[in-house]
Write the structure tokens for this entry.
Amino acid sequence: MSKRYSIVHLVSLICAILLVGCAIMKPEPEIIPPPDVHSILATLKMRYDLVVNTFTRDAYDRRRLAIHAGGRMWRPMLHIDDAVDSYMSVLEAPSEMVSGRVFNVLSENLQVIKIAYETRRALETYKGIRLDLEVQQVGVVRSYRVDGSRFQELFDTIGRRDLGSAVSEMWDHLEGGIDVTDPVYYNIRWLELLCDIKQRLKTMGGSPL
């Protein structure tokens, strides 16, 4: 993440985005309460359940990438620094340009097989690491393709960083000795753990903080 954005700036930015989103959607307060600082801070964590991140983790652990369903699935790509720049551009833009509008923000749509090859190329280029690719033709094909033309017509803040630089940065993070099995890095596992803790507290007569 770019060093020019402090954690305080990012928290303020996320608060603004979430609050604007709530105002636009106008949810019923008893169904979807406004976001609080604790829930916002909980989102500021690394995730290893996203495709590029997962490939980088597997490359680090196994020196091998497994690609299911022939890698035919599509995923929209966006570097975190490009995401931050895009948020800032919208917040700083004249209200008549962005007010009441919804934007998809991405650099490009890529098939998973392409992402795997790009990950392998990046690690070979930046780190001198050689990877084996195991392409399996079976698996679930679930694609997400996004049209980001509306945003691209107004702003030029996306696509400045490539997939390779993100892979290299994550590799450095992994070399820091983190435990990639920790549920905190996986949204579903983390939610399951929190639900389990909540139930245990309820059984013991306590309550979550």
In short: The CA atoms of residues 90 and 96 lie 11 Å apart. The chain has three domains: 1-45, 47-178, 181-209. The first strand starts at residue 64 and ends at 67.
